[in-house]
């Protein structure tokens, strides 16, 4: 059991899914939003996932994502953070950003994963990142976001 729990933690920590995440989490919208300016001039309103629990839950169980909205995962240290789509019901574009808020990797139209075990595909950049932005699948190109683009945002004070 411990090995399974550790495996689950390893797979999820990067997509954000600590031990309690196997049970359906409460869906509470974070009132703290960050405005992210894209190269196209569009502003994305992103919920902030900056704690282990918020990162674990992410956009799980959501049925939809409003236009020009997303979730910004904020990590304490730069790593090649791995994500997966377990219990995520909407297709997403995943955007990894370094400490200078430059795009280091993009995964487009990542499909949902309906597997009941922990075998959902994993998505990982080749470079370290400090932030990961999740937006509705198929929208990254419309925002003119590509590898090397810089996004502009300021995190609110804790």
Sum this structure up briefly.
The protein has 158 residues and is mainly beta. The chain has helices at residues 2-13, 52-57, and strands at residues 33-37, 43-49, 69-79, 83-84, 92-97, 103-110, 122-123, 129-136.
Provide structural commentary.
The protein is mainly beta and 158 residues long. The protein is built from 2 helices and 8 strands; from the N terminus they run αββαββββββ. Mean pLDDT is 84; it is low at 1-30.
Strand count, sense and barrel status of the largest sheet are: 6 strands, mixed
Query: N-to-C terminal Cα separation, in Å?
Result: 36 Å
> Radius of gyration over alpha carbons?
15 Å
Residue stretches low in confidence (pLDDT < 50, at least 5 long) are 1-30
Helix fraction by DSSP (H/I, runs of at least 4)? 10-25%
> Strand arrangement, largest sheet?
1-2-3-8-5-6
Total helical elements: 2
Return the structural class: mainly beta
DSSP strand content? 25-35%
* Shape by Cα distribution: globular
The string of secondary-structure elements, in order, is: HEEHEEEEEE
Average residue-wise pLDDT:
84
Number of strands: 8
Helices and strands in order:
Blueprint: H1 2-13, E1 33-37, E2 43-49, H2 52-57, E3 69-79, E4 83-84, E5 92-97, E6 103-110, E7 122-123, E8 129-136
Parallel strand pairs: 2-3
Antiparallel strand pairs: 1-2, 3-8, 4-7, 5-6, 5-8
Descriptive keywords:
158 residues, mainly beta, six-stranded mixed beta sheet, two-stranded antiparallel sheet, 8 strands, disordered N terminus
């Amino acid at each position: 059991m411990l090995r399974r729990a550790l495996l689950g933690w390893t797979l999820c920590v990067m997509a954000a899914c600590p031990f309690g995440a196997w049970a359906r989490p409460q869906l509470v919208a974070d009132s703290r939003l960050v405005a992210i300016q894209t190269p196209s001039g569009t502003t994305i309103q992103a919920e902030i996932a900056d704690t282990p629990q918020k990162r674990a839950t992410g956009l799980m169980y959501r049925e939809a994502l409003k236009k020009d909205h997303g979730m910004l995962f904020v990590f304490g240290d730069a790593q090649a953070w791995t994500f997966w789509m377990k219990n995520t019901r909407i297709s997403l574009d995943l955007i990894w950003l370094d400490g200078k808020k430059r795009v280091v990797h993009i995964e487009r139209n990542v499909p949902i994963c309906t597997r009941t075990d922990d075998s959902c595909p994993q998505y990982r950049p080749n470079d370290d990142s400090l932030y990961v932005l999740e937006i509705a699948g198929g929208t990254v190109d419309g925002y003119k976001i590509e590898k090397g683009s810089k996004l502009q945002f300021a995190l609110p004070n804790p």
